[in-house]
Amino acid sequence: MVMNSSWLQPILLLLLLSGSLVRIEGLSVGINYGQIANNLPTPTRVAFLLQSLNINKVKLYDADPNVLQAFSNSNVEFIVSAGDILNLSDPSKAQAWVKQHIQPFIPQTKISCIIVGNEILAPGADGQLMSSLLPAMQNMHSALVSLGLDKQINVSTSHSLTILANSFPPSSGAFRPDLAEYIQPILSFHSQVNSPFLINAYPYFAYKGSPNDVSLEYVLLQPNQGSVDPNTNLSYDNMLFAQIDAVYSAMKALGHSDIEVKISETGWPSKGDTDEPGASPENAGIYNGNLLQRIEEKQGTPMKPSVPIDIFVFALFNENMKPGPTSERNYGLFYPDGKPVYNIGLMRASLPELRISASTINVMNAFAYLICFMSFLILA
């Protein structure tokens, strides 16, 4: 068996730091685990990596049984996705989907949410799909109720920010009028079943579209002058929090202040084409690193300061088969061989100062190598 040493580097360090002298606290951050690639490690090795990093929330773009099985009896909580909306608008097919893709893995694998569709409500989108979205969500929830799983698994769908007609200032956030007939009943569904409203928010897109008009520091969550909402006098020092509050305002305008907004995707590309300004490892590291810091500090937005932001970073790996511009294939925190694309401080959380002798370090290194070697023999 040939072992790739690049996988050992991050794991060795984490094993070394996870002994009795040091405790690494896991950050409450999720990760999007996309698989549009032909060079990714096996789900078993991914499970080993994520647990080593203390990442305990994962979002899938399907309900891959190999992944769910690989994370059996782990502390990782999953959001899974169901994409066949037209079929799921049939109650019997929604019931069959849950029985096939969810029920066999409960409770060994923790599943907390099913996302029905991704960015279905959009300008010019398929009208039949948009009309079928809510019935599919309702059917999935009913299937969970009938199987006694609705208390542990909720149902939602994820939206792009194109559903907003206005996002600035945040207090003036409003949904597109042409989507109101779909969004209003979906909000009522969320309110009834107590599930979150999920958005995919990428400040990078705003910078890419207008690099001369949008402050790079503002979108990267770096120190800057920020902006003040003239209607509320609330100060915003980054675009992501302003986007979240714009969605809260849009929901409030439709009569809902009882639904939590969560970020199902956000990230920054480490590489792009010549017409994709700002796509670099440095900026990606700054954006995601600052985001992790905000999460670690349990920050809320100016409108919801007591509600810590709940975010899933996009994405775990670079995906070499994704279509579109170069940036689409370069959102990963890791290369497929397990090497970090850049350092965002996943191992920085609250480490005490170490005073360890050289002989102790040698012993710990030897022990870590032994554990890694044995682990990879088992996983091979």
UniProtKB/TrEMBL annotation:
The chain crosses the membrane at residues 356-379. InterPro entries: GH, Glyco_hydro_17, Glyco_hydro_17_plant. One of its GO terms (molecular function) is glucan endo-1,3-beta-D-glucosidase activity. Residues 1-26 form the signal peptide. Pfam families: Glyco_hydro_17. GO terms for biological process: carbohydrate metabolic process. It catalyses: Hydrolysis of (1->3)-beta-D-glucosidic linkages in (1->3)-beta-D-glucans. Its EC number is 3.2.1.39. The keyword Nucleotide-binding does not apply. Keywords: Glycosidase, Hydrolase, Membrane, Signal, Transmembrane, Transmembrane helix. Belongs to the glycosyl hydrolase 17 family. This is glucan endo-1,3-beta-D-glucosidase. It comes from Stephania yunnanensis.
